[in-house]
From TrEMBL:
It holds the Pfam family Mannitol_dh_C. Residues 29-265 form the Mannitol dehydrogenase N-terminal domain. Keywords: Oxidoreductase. Signal peptide: none annotated. One of its GO terms (molecular function) is fructuronate reductase activity. It is an enzyme of class 1 (oxidoreductase). This is Fructuronate reductase. Gene3D superfamilies: N-(1-d-carboxylethyl)-l-norvaline Dehydrogenase, domain 2, NAD(P)-binding Rossmann-like Domain. Residues 280-465 form the Mannitol dehydrogenase C-terminal domain. Its EC number is 1.1.1.57.
Length: 477
């Protein structure tokens, strides 16, 4: 079977929506780090619209570690399929990538980042890709940061590349690119700015001050449920399209991108493409991370303990679905500060409804990755706020305990834990007292939380209940 390409567009089935612009005419105006499924399903759908009216905003996809997606994009003229799997399915070809840069192509990356026609850089490298410590600041003990600190000319980390790209701009007296972080972290733009400034300060104090003063790092909230593209999905798409597409992605119809307003002269028309630009992104960010992602991680760890495979199965389980609903409404939404223009209880209902989409096979095991990086933003921030308000955290302790029980099962079975802290987590979770040992990991739990008896005792008792198979008792909360 041949692969998707510009030449193949004409022969695709009529029901497939073709790009609204000439894919051959787009030029690079954006450099993106981390062209994983979420990027290909979310950001590029917006830029594909921008490109319908303005060919300057093509995206160069950069993958520093793995070549797979970049090779597929190169082989397919930057084209791939976006399958909307929802109550009303649809298939659309995205033509937003003007270039692709893989491992070992650092010289090309450096040239691109220095080019003033590139006005934006964006990133989806997941939480761990930013090399941050537990307090959200740059981790100077991270091996990639140790490397980049000593060798500014040949960075290994995304942070190193951003700073070196900005350094080249400054040296050429050119305007910087704006840097848009699109990962699920609270205050994502601010955290990335602080990390870049911290590394720059090790290289050149003048550069650090210039980055702090001149470069925009707007915060953003990004949302669209995007299950991984597994071989079964790729085979199904090949059957539908009549050509192979190794970069195809699938997602629900719902998509949202809320971005803090920032200055960019003559930039892309993001608002026209459906991006919400606002001065108050933090409220949205927090609501999304705590309600949607918090519930996702809870469903993942508890659902896996009950033998479920997908989010749909987990929310369809009456005991777990009921528990998740109470957690979302009575614990999480209830504790959020009011957000202008957002009814948080209604938002929680809408999110729950998205989880009940039978067309989406979103694996709990995928969501369960990288718990050490996700739990702090998704669940522990809510726990901290509730404790400060003198409120009960018994229900919130259940998903935290479910994570510890999940680590315990994996460690005992000798199964891989996908997490940058895998080794430490496996050691702690398989010790004589898994709850105490995991709660003692300061990379995840700040002392203030772990040492608060209300939280510690609730987690400890719930871990015991999980290990004894008394889940039903916990889910009745
Ligand atoms: C999920 C997210 O994998 C995960 O951890 O919670 O990828 C989630 O699907 C997205 O943030 C939805 O926008």
């Amino acid at each position: 079977m041949t692969s998707l390409s510009r030449a193949a567009l004409a022969s695709l089935p009529a029901a497939v929506t073709r790009p609204g612009h000439d894919p051959a005419a787009i030029r690079t105006g954006v450099v993106h780090f981390g062209p994983g499924a979420f990027h290909r399903a979310h950001q590029t759908a917006y830029f594909d619209r921008v490109l319908d009216g303005d060919p300057r905003w093509g995206i160069a996809a950069v993958s520093l570690r793995s070549a797979g997606t970049v090779d597929a994009l190169k082989a397919q003229d930057g084209l791939y399929t976006l399958a909307i799997i929802d109550r009303e399915p649809a298939t659309r070809i995205i033509a937003a990538h003007s270039d692709a840069i893989g491992p070992g192509e650092g010289t090309r990356l450096r040239t691109l980042l220095a080019d003033p026609t590139v006005k934006l850089a964006t990133s989806t490298v997941t939480e761990k890709g930013y090399c941050l410590a537990a307090d959200g600041s740059l981790d100077f003990n991270h091996p990639d940061i140790v490397h980049d600190r000593a060798r500014p000319g040949e960075p290994a980390s995304v942070i190193g590349w951003i700073v070196s790209g900005l350094a080249d701009r400054r040296a050429a007296r050119a305007a910087p690119f704006a840097m848009l972080c699109c990962d699920n972290m609270t205050g994502n733009g601010g955290k990335l700015r602080a990390a870049c400034v911290a590394l720059a300060r090790e290289w050149d104090a003048g550069l650090a001050d210039w980055i702090a003063g001149e470069v925009a790092f707007p915060d953003s909230m990004v949302d669209s449920i995007t299950p991984a593209s597994d071989p079964a999905f790729l085979a199904k798409m090949a059957g539908e399209l009549g050509v192979e597409d190794q970069a195809a992605v699938q997602r629900e119809r719902f998509t949202q991108w809320v971005l803090q307003r920032f200055d960019l002269a003559d930039g892309p028309d993001l608002a026209g493409a459906g991006v919400t630009l606002t001065n108050d992104v933090q409220g949205y960010e927090q609501a999304k991370l705590r309600i949607l992602n918090g519930a996702h991680s809870s469903l993942a760890y508890i659902g896996l303990a009950l033998g479920h495979e997908t989010v749909f199965e987990a929310v369809s389980d009456p005991a777990l679905g009921g528990f998740a609903g109470r957690l979302m409404h009575e614990d999480i939404a209830q504790s959020l500060k009011p957000v202008e223009g957002l009814d948080v209880q209604g938002y929680a209902d809408a999110v729950f409804d998205r989880f009940r989409n039978p067309a989406i096979r979103h694996l709990l095991s995928q969501i369960a990755w990288d718990g050490s990086q996700k739990l702090p933003y998704r669940l522990l921030d809510t726990v901290r706020d509730k404790l400060a308000a003198g409120e009960d955290v018994a229900r919130l302790a259940v998903p935290v305990a479910a994570w510890i029980a999940f680590l315990n099962r994996k460690a005992k079975a000798g199964e891989t834990i996908t997490d940058p802290l895998a080794e430490v987590l496996a050691g702690a979770a398989s010790s004589g007292d898994p709850a105490a040992a995991v709660l003692a990991l300061r990379q995840v739990f700040p002392a203030q939380l772990a040492e608060d008896a209300r939280f510690r005792d609730a987690v400890t008792a719930a871990v015991t209940a999980f290990l004894d198979g008394r889940e039903a008792e916990l889910l009745a909360r």
